């Protein structure tokens, strides 16, 4: 029961972090590109970035949970104590965590090219 409550609290904190990072990236992109947009357009862009980031995060979390359940399922041989398996899971965890941290910045960079069609300004933003 405590584990479920802790997981829900982490999910709420993750969503709050996601919203704040998404809004921050959109604001930085607005300032960097120097393009005026009305309020409706800004809100629409924020919603696109935040929802697509949330979707990608949930797909990563779902995929990693399914992988863990598949590998740790009871089998003929014992896989739980394998050192190589532990290293693989640590590598997957580091990759997913790195992707989680870099994803809003990468999406803002892509949005600078896709939404504004200004590759030069988007490249300056990435630096």
UniProtKB/TrEMBL annotation:
Record key words, sorted: Membrane, Transmembrane, Transmembrane helix
Transmembrane segments: 12-31, 43-63, 83-99
Listed name of the protein: Uncharacterized protein
């Amino acid at each position: 029961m405590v584990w479920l409550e802790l997981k829900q609290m982490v999910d709420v904190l993750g969503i709050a972090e996601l919203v704040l990072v998404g809004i921050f990236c959109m604001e930085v992109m607005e300032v960097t590109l120097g393009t005026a947009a009305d309020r409706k357009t800004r809100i629409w862009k924020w919603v696109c970035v935040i929802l697509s980031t949330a979707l990608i995060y949930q797909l990563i979390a779902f995929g990693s949970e399914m992988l863990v359940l598949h590998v740790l399922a009871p089998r003929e041989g014992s896989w739980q104590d394998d050192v190589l398996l532990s290293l693989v899971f640590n590598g997957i965890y580091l990759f997913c965590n790195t992707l989680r941290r870099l994803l809003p910045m990468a999406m803002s960079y892509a949005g600078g090219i896709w939404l504004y069609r200004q590759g030069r300004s988007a490249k300056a933003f990435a630096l």
